[in-house]
């Protein structure tokens, strides 16, 4: 029995003094830290996506405003052209000013 204890005492002491026991204690902390870093990376990707979507929304809003202005101009021109219903110069339907 004494031989058995003396045989296992040396590896146990080497394990404890070598930091093996400490690795079990820090394993949980290391895992939590890795999870936190992974979540931060995912959050960074989401923030970049949100930023890109906002930029696209602003750009599309500007394009929509430009298109609405162009449509308004086209309707204005159309109203003016509707006054001239006939291309014959002497026609009574043609506006004269």
What brief labels describe this structure?
single chain, 97 residues, mainly alpha, 2 helices, 81% helix, rod-shaped
Shape: rod-shaped
Beta-strand percentage?
Answer: under 5%
Instruction: Output mean pLDDT.
Output: 79
Order of helices and strands: HH
Parts with pLDDT < 50 across at least 5 consecutive residues: none
Question: How many helices does DSSP assign?
Answer: 2
Largest sheet: none
- Count of individual beta strands: 0
Helix fraction?
over 70%
Ends: how far apart?
125 Å
Over the alpha carbons, how many angstroms does the gyration radius reach?
A: 40 Å
Structural class: mainly alpha
Task: Please describe what this structure looks like.
The longest helix is centred in the middle third of the chain and has 63 residues, at 20-82. The chain has a domain at 2-63. It has helices at residues 2-17, 20-82. It is built from two helices and no strands. Helices cover 81% and strands 0% of the residues. It has 97 residues and is mainly α.
């Amino acid at each position: 029995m004494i031989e058995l204890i003396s045989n296992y005492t040396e590896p146990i002491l080497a394990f404890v003094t070598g930091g093996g026991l400490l690795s079990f204690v820090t394993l949980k902390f290391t895992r939590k830290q890795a999870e936190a870093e992974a979540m931060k990376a995912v959050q960074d990707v989401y923030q970049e996506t949100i930023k890109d979507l906002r930029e696209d929304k602003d750009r599309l809003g500007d394009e929509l405003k430009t298109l609405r202005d162009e449509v308004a101009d086209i309707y204005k021109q159309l109203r003016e052209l509707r006054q001239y219903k006939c291309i014959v110069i002497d026609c009574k339907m043609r506006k004269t000013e």
